[in-house]
TrEMBL record:
The keyword Plastid does not apply. GO terms for molecular function: acetate-CoA ligase activity. Catalyzes the conversion of acetate into acetyl-CoA (AcCoA), an essential intermediate at the junction of anabolic and catabolic pathways. AcsA undergoes a two-step reaction. In the first half reaction, AcsA combines acetate with ATP to form acetyl-adenylate (AcAMP) intermediate. In the second half reaction, it can then transfer the acetyl group from AcAMP to the sulfhydryl group of CoA, forming the product AcCoA. Residues 87-474 form the AMP-dependent synthetase/ligase domain. The modification N6-acetyllysine is found at K614. Its cofactor is Mg(2+). This is Acetyl-coenzyme A synthetase. Pfam families: ACAS_N, AMP-binding, AMP-binding_C.
């Protein structure tokens, strides 16, 4: 976002007061801020009391060895018990946990908490039979079907950290994650449905497993589409096992073990500023406290009456925190949908299931805006009472459209800022307290300390911009990067001692409310998904025709940012041939996944570099965003930009 748009934004003076009925009955009220300020640890201890523990903790927070935090030290807990058994024991076994909606019309399943408990127990027994033990890592590569939730909870039950890899990632991306966390078992399905057709997943797993040598012992496969798959069964000494063969026949009784509060729950890989994805480690007690409490607080969840729907894919952190662990720990009834956004389908689901709380990403909202309000207007969405947004800054137009068209002008919008690393929502309005400003995530939640600082770590004060930092540890914070404590310290804690550097720019307005401005590092945000410029550059240069590549995230009306690449071809490649751009786009999709495909690739003769050889992406961004090119005086060769621009004007 440019300075100009930002100052326009901050003169945004529309305010949306919380609805009176919501405010009168809100789960969390204004007093929470002061209470948390007075005693942060007592505040989080009270949040932890909402869960079922085995042994209670001796110490709320151990911060004696920063930045390595330990929360609820000495406590024991089982995340799966908190997400299922506890609700069954409380007499809510018949309550629907998941209204699952498949992509093919009329393909639906309602799953109650007691059915979920039985299924999780069966899966835990089956995984045990496959030799999975506490501490072993399990990779999960699945579509949005109930079994993915079952698989995650079964792993949590055993204390076997899962690593869920988004089904849109390539075999290579899956292989590198399996290798990094040394997963011995992969859970997948034959395929899933996308835009009306069955699309295969198992072949990518086969390819990934081949690449990882003899690391993977078993591949557990759910039959979803019934398509043909290549099979290496156990009978012939192979590794493949059908889910229905071993899970369906397993016992529904499973005695769960209580795990240490700091026992690893999962690893989620996310893009960093280098080519190698980072394995974000989340542990059990603090993570479950942070996600379940904020889910109840920010969405004002009333588990008895609400129907909650988070549209995120389970392959991202939003799916982990706000589809699996937070809502299930709270005993919520929720919708889970297999497909991607299609014209009226989402609104039909809202209508059919009487969804009350809806959580999605700005990119989806902007797509629906473009299609026109006639589509949502055709459905009865009067059940909705609260709307959430996540993943990227929401522009005021999209916020107001979301509020008016989807929310019937009565639902508050909570714009929630957080990250894979933070595990839980950190900055957000409180729906019963805050008068929302379109475009601002407002304030740090009670118990969270955020600030905006300058290069010297000084608070910028109201009316100014700088870097977003977090000043105190929080329960769901990442504990480290899998196997790489040094990179953990270096990435988040080295810029200013004692402060967590989020990587986002932000501004405080005159009221002290926070406006997020996007990343300040080499990380792009495309449709709310995090991509690394360096990772895509390495994918491009791994193509035999490419000598050099530079990637920038350029502003895009729908996706927030879009991937734009500039490549120099090798001499031997000539002009690369007619379809070079398409060939390179396909190559990136194969190396990383379709989400990383550049929107645009320009073949250029040179790249703008400083005298020390650093690529000046800022100038390329100017080209990609069709702006006047900025200051070129630090370039080693200042004529390079003219060459690049002449390419642009001659392009079709
Ligand atoms: C980055 C984190 C949090 C789950 C989804 C993305 C951006 C996230 C917002 C928001 C402005 C936001 C930030 C952040 N971001 N939410 N409400 N307003 N920016 O998780 O892939 O870890 O990405 O997404 O830049 O650093 P992620």
């Amino acid at each position: 976002m440019s300075e100009q748009t930002l100052s326009n934004l901050m003169h945004e003076d529309r305010r949306f007061e919380p609805p009176a009925d919501l405010a009168a009955d809100a789960n969390v009220t204004e007093e929470a801020y002061a209470r948390a300020d007075a005693d942060r640890e007592a505040f989080w201890a009270e949040a932890a009391e909402r869960l079922e523990w085995g042994r209670k903790w001796d110490q709320v927070l151990d911060w004696s060895n920063p930045p390595f935090a330990k929360w609820f030290v000495g406590g024991t807990i089982n995340a799966s018990v908190n997400c299922v058994d506890r609700h069954v024991a409380a007499g809510n076994g018949d309550k629907v946990a998941l209204h699952w909606v498949g992509e093919p019309d009329d393909d639906t399943r309602d799953i109650t908490y007691s059915q979920l408990k039985d299924e999780v127990s069966r899966a835990a027994n089956a995984l045990t039979e496959l030799g999975v033990r506490k501490g072993d890592r399990v990779a999960i590569y699945m579509p949005m079907i109930p079994e993915v939730v079952v698989a995650m909870l079964a792993c949590a039950r055993l204390g076997a950290p899962h690593t869920v890899v988004f089904g849109g990632f390539s075999a290579d991306a899956l292989a590198s994650r399996i290798t990094d966390c040394e997963a011995r078992v992969v859970i997948t399905s034959d395929g899933g449905y996308r835009r009306g057709a069955a699309s295969a997943l198992k072949p990518a797993v086969d390819e990934a497993v081949e690449k990882t040598g003899d690391l993977v012992r078993n591949v557990l496969v759910v039959r979803r589409t019934g398509q043909d798959v290549e099979w290496h069964g156990r009978e012939e000494g192979g590794r493949d096992v059908w889910w229905h063969d071993i899970v369906d026949s397993a016992s529904a009784e499973h005695e769960p073990e209580l795990h240490d509060s700091e026992h690893p729950l999962y690893v989620m890989y996310t893009s960093g500023t280098t080519g190698k994805p980072k394995g974000i480690l989340h542990t059990t007690g603090g993570y479950l406290t942070g996600t379940s409490f904020t889910h109840w607080e920010v969405f004002d969840l009333k588990p008895e009456t609400d129907v909650y729907w988070c549209t995120a894919d389970v392959g991202w952190v939003t799916g982990h925190s706000y589809m699996v662990y937070g809502p299930l720990a709270n005993g919520a009834t929720q919708v889970m949908y297999e497909g991607t956004p299609e014209k009226g389908r989402w609104w039909k689901i809202v209508q059919d299931y009487k969804v009350t709380i809806f959580y999605t990403a700005p990119t989806a909202i902007r797509t629906f805006m473009k299609q026109g309000r006639e589509i949502p207007d055709g459905y009865d969405m009067s059940s909705l009472r609260l709307l959430g947004s996540v993943g990227e800054p929401i522009n005021p137009e999209a916020y107001v459209w979301y509020r008016e068209v989807i929310g019937g002008d009565r639902c508050p919008v909570v714009d929630t800022w957080w990250q894979t690393e933070t595990g839980q929502i950190m900055i957000s309005p409180l729906p019963g307290v805050t008068a929302g400003k379109p475009g601002s995530a407002m304030k740090a939640l009670p118990g969270i300390a955020a600030d905006v600082v300058d290069d010297d770590a000084k608070s910028v004060g109201n009316g100014n911009g700088g870097y977003l930092v977090l000043k105190e540890p929080w329960p769901a914070m990442l504990r480290t990067l899998w196997g790489d404590d040094e990179r953990f310290k270096e990435t988040y804690w080295s810029r200013w001692p004692g402060l967590y550097f989020a990587g986002d720019g932000a501004k405080l307005d005159d009221d002290g409310d926070i406006w997020l401005l996007g990343r300040v590092d080499d990380v792009m945000n495309v449709s709310g998904h995090r991509l690394s410029t360096t990772e895509i550059e390495s994918a491009l240069v791994s193509h035999p025709k490419v000598a050099e590549a530079a990637v920038v995230g350029a502003a895009d009306e729908t996706t927030g940012q879009a991937v734009c690449a500039f490549v120099i071809l090798r001499d031997s490649a000539g002009d690369g041939g007619e379809d070079i751009v398409e060939e390179l786009r396909r190559h990136v999709a194969k190396e990383i996944g379709a989400i990383a495909k550049p929107r645009q690739i320009m073949v250029v003769p040179e790249l703008p570099k400083t005298r020390s050889g650093k690529i000046m992406r800022r100038l390329l961004k100017d080209v990609a965003e069709h702006r006047e090119v900025g200051d070129v005086t630090t370039l080693a060769d200042s004529t390079v930009m003219d060459l690049i621009k002449s390419k642009e004007t001659s392009a079709p």
